[in-house]
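Hey, can you fold this one?
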Amino acid sequence: MITIKNETIHNIPTLHVVKAENDHTKQLPTVFFLHGYTSAKEHNLAIAYLLAEKGFRVILPDALHHGEREGDVRGKDRDVLFWNIVLQSIKEISVIKDNLQQRELIDNDRIGVAGTSMGAITMYGTLSQYSWIHSAVSFMGTAYFQSFANAQIKMIEDSGHTLEEKMKQAMLSQLKAVDLSQNLEALNERPLLIWHGEQDQVVPFDYSKALYEQLYDQYDQTDRIQFIQEPNTSHKVTRHATLQGVDWFCTHLLNEKVKASVW
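Sure. Predicted structure:
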């Protein structure tokens, strides 16, 4: 049986999914799953269930201004805060990890991070910051923070919403520090699965294709980097993608003799 516990960790609403027999007390391989924009932690319980069945502890937090933290910030007001949300989530995943570590609930050498859309973007940011992440999965995200942010700024301004130049530059400056595309060496050949639908009109497919092409030649062990592109698929994670993500973590967190990279 799989148990789902709703707990708040340092003011961050979080779902904690694990096999009942592990009873929230065993050090387990752990996957953090980060939801997409306008979504919430509960919307990813399907993949959390599949991972928990395989023996993982799965942690699903609500991002700032989402789910239980949504409050009154919605629509255009939330759109202009997109990158603030991403930057906050990058910080918060470390806070949650430290809490679980102190409670002796996670296997420190078997930690994975996955995300959908905004969550996958956040995941790329975490890879730029934390060497304790061993393996990762991106569902329709992008590691090209500054490029994507500039495209978003143009879209927001074209819709009639004015953004102050000072605010734009401050945000882009913050993103530079966590932009994985500008620091690919930080990956250190950690296992990374990249999935994207070819017809995605929200986060362009070409971002994922370009990242894979940049990374492939940098990996001596090419089985640790994989790109799955699905034709006739828009901004929606398919069942095939979900199952591939579960298999990826089983291979690289359960079956491999793993050790988090050291920088």
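The first helix runs from residue 45 to 53. Let me know if you want another pass with a different chain boundary.
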